[in-house]
Amino acid sequence: MEKMKRIKIFDTTLRDGEQSPGATLTHSEKILIAKQLEKLNVGVIEAGFPVASDDDFEAVSSIASEIKKPVVCALARCIKKDIDVAAKAIEPAKKGRIHVFLATSPIHMKFKLKKTPQEIISSAVKHIKYAKEFTKDIEFSPEDASRTKPEFLFEVVEKAINAGATTINIPDTVGYTQPNEYGTLIKSIKENVPNIDEAIISVHCHDDLGLAVANSIEAIRNGAQQVECTINGIGERAGNASLEEIVMNIYTRKDYSNAFTEINFSEIMNTSKMVSSFTGLMVQANKAIVGKNAFAHESGIHQHGVLNNPESYEIMNPKIVGKETELIIGKHSGKHAIKNFIESQGFSFTDEQLEAVSSKIKLLADKQKKIFNEDIIALANQISGKIPEENQIIKIKEVSISTGNKIKPTANIVLDFDGEEVNGLANGLGPVDAVSKAIKNAIGDFELKEYNLKAITGGTDALADVVVLIDYKGKTYSAEAINEDVIMASTKALIKALNKGFITKRRRKK
Most buried one in 5, 44, 55, 313, CB count within 10 A? Predict the structure, then answer.
């Protein structure tokens, strides 16, 4: 079998990634990200475009001073001033690189640069040689290479290597190419550029058609030795190839790419979170590898499979990238996952109790979009402490409330009181006070001594958790009830406490 290829990871989060609209980073944030990229063990950090501004220059220079292991790279156009400034910025670097670029596609040459093909070659050669005076490590990019005529691209690449380029980057600048086309392009460069073995082939793909990672992988299969990418796939327009997706693709499908990287996988999540926080570009929930839902399962079938063997539905161990498997409890969850979660919280439920809490979870999921762990624990507490149906003396049949800014709160309640239907109607200072008085009118006097309400989770659809303490016949009884409706939670808590009182009284008589 052919020896596995080492793929160098060239991270351009601080250069191309920062070009994402709204993603401007401060000087100190760039330093922190660069240090985190060093922990991640990337091979090259493209620290910025020094000629763009004084701040860019200072950031690249600071990174060059502080970063020891990765190569620190500065971008420059094929313009003498750009190269002078880039060279000055990377001067403190232990390992420095200048990355020069010049467009080679017909549309860019004609409309952007207004230069002939021969003028492009002449400029590229001239400026690569000039950059070589400052550092031996020179990368050259024929911008928009994927839309460049192949014969012209071969010529430019050959002459760039002769001029001193040690890395040749083949960018799919506008994300136009397809995986098979891009792989073929890399292969054709290897076959048609006589001195290609004197340089490393790099690839830089954009995601305009959602193919940046796929194109990068096909390039690796066809001879690319370096991949340029960004954390979370941020970058111009639709972004760049995502670093985490590329490295985990290579790792998970070694059989396909026959390659490896030296990335420290355990720092992937930390790096993703840092970049997301500093740039303000949130990671979508279903983003591969680092998205919130990347290793989350709600379907009962999937959850059962994962509980039996995680590999049923997870092609990689989430712990490798600093994450955990999540079994999301919701309307699609099965009893296996619900039981697993409940037992992890210290509950030991009978099949009947498990059925009851599962039903409540599904009913709640129909009413609110998201169920939190706190919701489930509250429901489990409710079930675990519930008086069996057959032992309940008082049961709620109907509750209706009228309230508003111009009417006095009124409650009408219908109860099953030991087999007999009773009604209670009352006004109150508020709807809860009205309910309490309506219950008194229906079944007899009691005193509400304490009333506590809290929202278990945030948002307007949060579950209400009501705890009451009542005095009935000289004895105090407490009860808790959970409901998505505050009035119903209050009513259920009061009835539950009264049931305790009536049951206790009945036992004494016996």
Answer: 44
